[in-house]
Design a protein that fits this description.
alpha/beta; BirA Bifunctional Protein, domain 2; three-stranded mixed beta sheet; 24% strand; disordered C terminus
């Protein structure tokens, strides 16, 4: 599994990069690949999102510098921001024997993040009937994927050092009775992003029984640069302003 760890990247560029890699994975040009990065403040609405779960008005979001995007992943509303580790696994589910389904893939992602939390002394777990990784009743990692011809995109968001106040702008994942948390909050101190990224990559390698190969840029996979799209693809367009 190729792993590329970027710094902060605009959400639109992350979508464009995923689209490039999904196409390359479908054609067999690249192996399974995990992108790890951060985004500037952005609220994303999945396929099943309810607009009322974005509590903040358009004006408030603009004042806080928060963009809003609709996307084709599963799930409801979530937030990405600096200090949060976002992972986009571009994985061919048909390449596993026996074949891995979408639900099992999400369960394996949960296991990888539970192992990462354990590396830092945080006891995370699953909650029956819900998706993600949880510390008691507090959500520390959110998940939502899209599958096209067996290849996954989107993925997970692990709260590491991010400002949890931003989650008050939304109803995270449409769940009203369970708060969010982070490694920093559970441990009482910020954690080194590089160490967290290394742990996530190692855990993914373990749960998918894959050797991990670290790369510096997608150029090493595609043989050309991937730039910011001039026009964001329609399924990934910015959402229309939220009403006050």
């Amino acid at each position: 599994m190729n792993v590329i760890h970027y710094g902060q990247m605009p959400y639109a560029l992350g979508l464009r990069m995923q689209a490039e890699l999904v196409s390359a994975r479908k054609s067999g040009q690249i192996a399974n690949t995990l992108l790890l990065l951060e985004h500037p403040p952005v609220v994303t609405l999945g396929r099943n999102a309810k607009r009322e779960n974005v509590i903040a008005s358009a004006d408030m979001l603009a004042r806080r510098g928060v963009e809003v995007y609709e996307c084709d992943r599963g799930g409801d509303v979530t937030f990405h921001g600096p200090g949060q580790l976002v992972g986009y696994p571009i994985v061919d589910l048909y390449g596993f024997s026996p074949r891995v389904g979408a639900v099992d893939f999400v369960r394996r992602m949960e296991e990888a993040l539970i192992r990462t939390c354990a590396d830092f002394g945080v006891a995370a777990q699953r909650i029956k009937g819900l998706t993600g990784a949880w510390v008691e009743q507090r959500k520390i990692a959110a998940m939502g994927i899209h599958v096209s011809r067996g290849v996954t995109s989107h993925g997970f968001a692990l709260n590491v050092n991010n400002d949890l106040e931003y989650f008050k702008l939304i109803v995270p994942c449409g769940i009203t009775d369970k708060p969010v948390t982070s490694l920093a909050r559970e441990l009482g101190a910020d954690q080194k992003p590089e160490r967290v990224a290394q742990s996530v990559a190692r855990s993914f390698g373990q749960v998918f029984n894959s050797q991990v190969l670290w790369l510096e840029h997608v150029d090493q996979l595609l043989g050309r640069k991937v730039g910011v799209p001039l026009v964001v693809p329609q399924p990934f367009a910015k959402a229309s302003p939220i009403n006050s």
